[in-house]
Amino acid sequence: MKRKLKAADTRPRVEAHDKRDLTEHMLDIIIIGGGPAGLSAAITARQRGKTAAVISNDSSKSGLYKAKEIGNYPGFPAISGAELLGKLIAHAGGMGAELISGRVSTVMPGDREFHIGYGSEILAAKSLILATGVAQSSLFPGEEELLGRGVSYCATCDGMLYRGKRVCALCYSPESGEEAEHLASIGCEVIRLSTKNIRINGDDRVTSVTADGADIACEGVFILRKAIAPNMLITGLKMEKGHVSVNSSGETSVPGVFAAGDCTGAPYQIARAVGQGLVAALSADDYITK
After folding, report:
1. Residue 219: inside a domain, yes or no?
2. Any idea which of 43-52, 62-71, 132-141, 154-163 has the lowest mean pLDDT?
3. Structural domain boundaries, residue 158
4. What integer pLDDT is reported at residue 289 of this predicted model?
């Protein structure tokens, strides 16, 4: 069951609840990211009668939540980031948007749908809105070249491929310990690493990882970050200077995928993110209708 926020509770929570309601049917829109852009998109999607789910990391860890005072968001002078996020979450949840806590690790396009993996769960939707904020981490040497050839972001999705083999789990998120334990439970020999001085080696396949100058032979590498750069989740997604490239309607280079907020570039302002979230949801609604 979904727990509603109390009026006096300004701490934003994204609650996981009965996922059977989500997996028994295909959603209209899945939104990755629970900041102002993503929550604005969810509100607009529900206003247009579309089913929508927001998948997000813990909002209380975000920079916006920690802001003591926001002085330029219209109509809310001197509101704190925690209060503003609390209001947006309560609004989206009250409209009927599904609010899910989790780290998206895979996006698998189908013929006319997208399958989004988070944790051990997979949801399906007709369209996707990226509202991930700015990607904070750079890629490791060898990561992009060997993605899908030994490099993975999802232990529960790809772990069985490495049963009985040695893998490196690069642990950089609160949930990474659980994912590493999952790999061990299915028979992988797991070496956990938390250093950021990493190079992934191999020609056609991963053969080793160099960590702080030491070579570690392995056949797989699971990179368990808090968030994954959008272009590493979605093949063919056009980027420009580290941001998702969009047109004025929020459309990306991939049909059915839209983007809003800081992930599309500067200025990094809440008002802009909220407006872009609305536009992306309207465009997703139009895409689904057509």
Report:
1. yes
2. 132-141
3. 151-224
4. 93
